[in-house]
Write a structure and sequence with these properties.
The protein has ten helices and 17 strands. It has about 350 residues and is of the alpha/beta class. Strand 4, helix 6 and strand 5 form a beta-alpha-beta unit. The longest helix has about 35 residues, at about 110-145. It is globular and about 60 Å long.
Length: about 350
């Protein structure tokens, strides 16, 4: 599989620079790559979930600035305005704005420097996620029984949510390579079915034993003793360890607490927002009502039905066994590890 997002410098006036993105709306039925040649099309791709996943959005933010810098050489004010438009598309995922700000910091050095910085974000992603996966696999091994683990995950935190490799599914990859995965239960993840469409597709590609379940069956699976640990990604992590992730994560954590199942959050350091004190301060994105009223063109509710459609919820740190990044771990109310002192 190609990188989830990548940079194409183009080869002349008829083929200008562009961002390449795997179209996640088309999976699993079709694997296709879109060529996004303008900031407008890039913004649309973020909004319609062609591109999704916090680390992938961070890289896309940087690539959006690179695209603007290529389109508007010598016009830094326009580039900054375009960059702000990109950063504002999805407010909950802190990585998006951080990617924008990282690339934008090189603007005074010229468009080539901005492009180089954006490409550096891409190159760093796999190394970060491999290290993250190893650390999280160690934590899950220590928390679980001394046998192959039965894991439950929600939404998609695999290679498709990053530039490559994955966060929560990166830990599953590492555990599978160690022979420590018995099965992964993947929640379908309503309303857009990222678990069914994307996570199951990735697990199949990885050759990891898995089953799909409706979101409402997860608590029952825990009650029946089918889950050794829950492992998920994150879109923003507050300084106190509270975690914003796909809607439904909080309910999973409540059920896990009832049944003594540890919940481990796996995300890069870039997802930790030290300026956000707690989950109460995280802005939760709400999406279009039609995502809930129907799916794939099929209407499942009266067209005027009022809808509450938050894209994320916040899980309090008290319900989590651990939050693992590539350089630190949050457990028992405090951060520890090589990057903990920076907090």
């Amino acid at each position: 599989m190609a990188r989830t997002v990548d940079w194409d410098e183009g080869d002349g006036p008829d083929r200008a620079a562009a961002v390449l993105a795997i179209d996640q709306r088309a999976l699993p039925g079709e694997y296709r790559v879109r060529r996004l040649a303008s900031v407008d099309t890039l913004i649309d791709a973020i909004a319609d979930l062609t591109i999704r996943g916090a680390p992938a959005l961070g890289a896309t933010g940087a690539l959006g600035v690179a695209l603007a810098a290529r389109r508007h050489p010598g016009d830094p004010d326009t580039v900054r305005a375009e960059a702000e438009r990109v950063a504002a598309v999805r407010p909950t995922a802190v990585n998006l704005r951080r990617g924008v700000e990282r690339a934008l910091a090189r603007l005074d050095d010229g468009a080539d420097a901005v492009v180089a910085e954006a490409c550096a974000v891409l190159d760093e992603d796999e190394a970060t996620n491999r290290r993250l996966g190893t650390r999280a696999a160690d934590v899950l091994t220590a928390l679980g029984p001394d046998c192959p683990l039965r894991l439950l995950t929600h939404c998609n935190a695999g290679a498709l949510a990053t530039v490559t490799w994955g966060t929560a599914l990166g830990a599953v990859r590492e555990l599978a390579e160690r022979g420590r995965v018995a099965e992964v239960l993947a929640c379908e993840t309503r309303p857009l079915l990222q678990g069914a469409r994307l996570t199951v597709w990735e697990l199949r590609e990885m050759g990891v034993a898995h089953r799909l379940l409706v979101d409402g069956a997860a608590a029952s699976a825990m009650a029946r003793g089918l889950v050794d640990a829950v492992v998920v990604g994150a879109d923003r992590i507050a300084a106190n360890g509270d975690v914003a992730n796909k809607i439904g994560t909080y309910a999973l954590a409540c059920a896990a607490a009832q049944h003594g199942v540890p919940v481990v959050v796996v995300a890069p350091e870039a997802t930790v927002d030290r300026t956000t004190a707690s989950g109460a301060d995280i802005v939760i994105e709400e999406r279009a009502a039609d995502e809930v009223r129907g799916f794939a063109g099929v209407v499942t509710a009266p067209p005027d039905t009022p809808v509450y459609n938050p894209a994320f919820d916040v899980t309090p740190a008290a319900l989590l066994a651990a939050v693992v990044t590539e350089g630190s771990t949050f457990r028992g109310g405090a951060w520890a590890g090589e990057k903990a002192l920076s907090r």
